[in-house]
């Protein structure tokens, strides 16, 4: 198939949620409906991932599991769907955020009882900053959950975009009758599902159909009134507004019962965009160009800490990838030959023969590929937009044996390049290096890897800082003045970008008011 057609049939999205909202369940059911698996329950060791403990063996196990299951590819209705997982739980880390840079849309799963929860909000902020279109699935309507109208306004408040219901629940919990498909004007009657997909759902046409009204009684009357209300009050669905991240289509259902899953899968195909152009410093890269380009958005260390091989996750931006082709790392000019590149077809890791824009390929390597690296057939390209997020947790790090200081620096540099942690060098004399993270687990992984891979026994100590902001100013004099006056709170990151460190939001606010010319950034782009 010619490249433009291959690109047009790709959909690459991330699935985001707060732990326990039902992301794993929905993922399984999406695979089930796409025919990628036959029986749900096969995706991953759910129990072990849910009760993520910080025990190192568990971390290792989970990393193994997550390499295999963090990207899944399936075919549905002639489309190739790439689903990228965003780990929640304790292993929430910067990786989670960066995955969102590799997708063209996001599917947000919300627990109908809990509404929009903190972990989701953090991810949503990144989607919003990038205008990523979001499809919303409100889960668990087979339970007593919040009123759908409340959920809708909560979604609107948190997303800062219009929530446009495509379906509407009739009842909930024990009285859950099904969902009414507003656009097709028909009701899909709820039936508790099993592990397998069933074909023969009952559908009843027409919102004014007396059969529905008599069968579902007051639950249906209420749903009909609500549908009237929202279709009267809400703006109509506008595809452009969705693509620009200003509207989100909302679906209701129960993932565990396979209910509402088909609608979500269809929405991905019908509404979510195919891969679009990507901005590089040099030029805009179109997905259907003939030459290959791709960017490393995640680097994952191998399960076996004795071997330093890593898997670089590359999102294809343009052209065709063929097994065995030679590509250049734009940063170093180094050529690599790609024979054993893996793809992620459902949950099996297999060798990839061909990949197009939107696909994700995994390249095992020994540190040749860094986060943000661009692979091309020779052209020098640097894609913009791989963000580094201001850490929210800090620890000072020192080496127990001063003779291993050099190894500590080497280890931290490499782990920093891999994106496992952010490293800051405080200006203050005698200040130990500071590690910054988004998730607590990042510190534990780094301490363990420093030991096993670099032979460094590192001591992690609490730090008085709780937030960081990269600082810029319109001219270098203003910036220097700020840096000099606040030296005690300034640290430089690995690319020597200065950051202001604060122990509380209040402290940050005070400084922001004192220096109105200085801009404080919660995100820094790679490069
Ligand atoms: P996560 O990946 O977002 O963390 O969530 P996961 O799918 O693991 O689901 C969290 C819990 O919610 C699981 O229950 C799961 O069975 C349940 N769940 C998912 N979808 C639905 C739904 O539509 N309705 C209801 N009632 N429950 C749902 P668990 O008891 O914690 O685990 P398990 O024993 O079922 O595996």
From TrEMBL:
<feature type="domain" description="Tr-type G">
    <location>
        <begin position="8"/>
        <end position="276"/>
    </location>
</feature>
<dbReference type="InterPro" id="IPR009000">
    <property type="entry name" value="Transl_B-barrel_sf"/>
</dbReference>
<dbReference type="InterPro" id="IPR004548">
    <property type="entry name" value="PrfC"/>
</dbReference>
<dbReference type="InterPro" id="IPR038467">
    <property type="entry name" value="RF3_dom_3_sf"/>
</dbReference>
<dbReference type="InterPro" id="IPR035647">
    <property type="entry name" value="EFG_III/V"/>
</dbReference>
<dbReference type="InterPro" id="IPR053905">
    <property type="entry name" value="EF-G-like_DII"/>
</dbReference>
<dbReference type="Pfam" id="PF00009">
    <property type="entry name" value="GTP_EFTU"/>
</dbReference>
<feature type="binding site">
    <location>
        <begin position="17"/>
        <end position="24"/>
    </location>
    <ligand>
        <name>GTP</name>
    </ligand>
</feature>
<dbReference type="InterPro" id="IPR032090">
    <property type="entry name" value="RF3_C"/>
</dbReference>
<dbReference type="Pfam" id="PF16658">
    <property type="entry name" value="RF3_C"/>
</dbReference>
<feature type="binding site">
    <location>
        <begin position="85"/>
        <end position="89"/>
    </location>
    <ligand>
        <name>GTP</name>
    </ligand>
</feature>
<keyword id="KW-0342">GTP-binding</keyword>
<dbReference type="InterPro" id="IPR041732">
    <property type="entry name" value="RF3_GTP-bd"/>
</dbReference>
<dbReference type="Pfam" id="PF22042">
    <property type="entry name" value="EF-G_D2"/>
</dbReference>
<dbReference type="InterPro" id="IPR031157">
    <property type="entry name" value="G_TR_CS"/>
</dbReference>
<dbReference type="InterPro" id="IPR005225">
    <property type="entry name" value="Small_GTP-bd"/>
</dbReference>
<keyword id="KW-0648">Protein biosynthesis</keyword>
<feature type="binding site">
    <location>
        <begin position="139"/>
        <end position="142"/>
    </location>
    <ligand>
        <name>GTP</name>
    </ligand>
</feature>
<dbReference type="InterPro" id="IPR027417">
    <property type="entry name" value="P-loop_NTPase"/>
</dbReference>
<keyword id="KW-0963">Cytoplasm</keyword>
<protein>
    <recommendedName>
        <fullName>Peptide chain release factor 3</fullName>
    </recommendedName>
</protein>
<comment type="similarity">
    <text>Belongs to the TRAFAC class translation factor GTPase superfamily. Classic translation factor GTPase family. PrfC subfamily.</text>
</comment>
<comment type="function">
    <text>Increases the formation of ribosomal termination complexes and stimulates activities of RF-1 and RF-2. It binds guanine nucleotides and has strong preference for UGA stop codons. It may interact directly with the ribosome. The stimulation of RF-1 and RF-2 is significantly reduced by GTP and GDP, but not by GMP.</text>
</comment>
<dbReference type="InterPro" id="IPR000795">
    <property type="entry name" value="T_Tr_GTP-bd_dom"/>
</dbReference>
<keyword id="KW-0547">Nucleotide-binding</keyword>
């Amino acid at each position: 198939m010619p490249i433009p057609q291959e690109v047009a049939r790709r959909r690459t999205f991330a699935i985001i949620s707060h732990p326990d909202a039902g992301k794993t369940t929905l993922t399984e059911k999406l695979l089930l409906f796409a025919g990628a698996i036959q029986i749900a329950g096969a995706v991953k060791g759910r129990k072990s991932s849910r009760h993520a403990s910080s025990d190192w063996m568990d971390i290792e196990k989970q990393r193994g599991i997550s390499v295999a299951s963090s990207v899944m590819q399936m075919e549905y209705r002639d489309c190739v769907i790439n689903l990228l997982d965003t780990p929640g739980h304790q292993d929430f880390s910067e990786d989670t955020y960066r995955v969102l840079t590799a997708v063209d849309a996001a599917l947000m799963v919300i627990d109908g009882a809990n509404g929009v929860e903190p972990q989701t909000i953090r991810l949503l902020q990144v989607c919003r900053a990038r205008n990523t279109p979001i499809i919303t699935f409100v889960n668990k309507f087979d339970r007593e959950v919040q009123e759908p109208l409340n959920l809708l306004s909560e979604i609107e408040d948190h997303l800062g975009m219009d929530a446009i219901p495509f379906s509407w629940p009739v009842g909930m919990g024990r009285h859950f009758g099904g969902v009414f498909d507003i656009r097709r004007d028909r009701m899909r009657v709820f039936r508790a599902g099993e592990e397998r997909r069933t074909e023969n759902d009952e559908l009843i046409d027409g919102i004014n159909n007396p059969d529905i009204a008599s069968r579902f009684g007051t639950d249906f009357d209420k749903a009909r009134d609500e549908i009237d209300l929202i279709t009267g009050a809400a703006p109509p669905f506008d595809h452009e507004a969705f693509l620009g991240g200003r509207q989100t289509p909302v679906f209701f259902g129960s993932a565990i019962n396979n209910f509402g899953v088909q609608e979500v899968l269809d929405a991905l195909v019908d509404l979510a965009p195919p891969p679009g152009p990507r901005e590089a410093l040099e030029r805009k890269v179109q997905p259907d160009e003939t030459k290959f380009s791709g960017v490393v958005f995640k680097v994952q260390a191998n399960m076996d800490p004795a071997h330093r091989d890593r898997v670089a996750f590359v999102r294809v931006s343009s052209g065709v990838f063929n097994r065995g082709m030679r590509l250049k790392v734009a940063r170093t000019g180094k050529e690599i030959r790609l024979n054993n590149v893996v793809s992620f077809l459902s949950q099996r890791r297999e060798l990839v023969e061909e990949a197009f824009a939107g696909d994700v390929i995994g390249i095992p390597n020994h540190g040749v590929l860094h986060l943000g690296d661009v692979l091309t057939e020779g052209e020098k390209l640097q894609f913009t937009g791989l963000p580094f997020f201001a850490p929210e947790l800090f620890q000072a790090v020192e080496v127990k044996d001063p003779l291993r200081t050099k190894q500590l620096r080497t280890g931290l540099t490499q782990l920093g390049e891999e994106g496992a942690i952010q490293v800051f060098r405080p200006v203050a004399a005698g200040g130990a290096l500071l590690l910054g993270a988004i998730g607590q687990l990042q510190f534990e992984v780094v301490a363990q890897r420093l030991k096993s891979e670099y032979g460094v026994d590192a001591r992690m100590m609490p730090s008085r800082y709780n937030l960081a902001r990269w600082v810029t100013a319109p001219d270098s004099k203003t910036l220097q003045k700020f840096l000099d006056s606040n030296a005690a709170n300034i640290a430089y990151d690995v690319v020597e970008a200065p950051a202001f460190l604060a122990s509380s939001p209040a402290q940050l606010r005070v400084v922001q008011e004192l220096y109105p010319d200085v801009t404080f950034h919660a995100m820094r782009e790679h490069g």
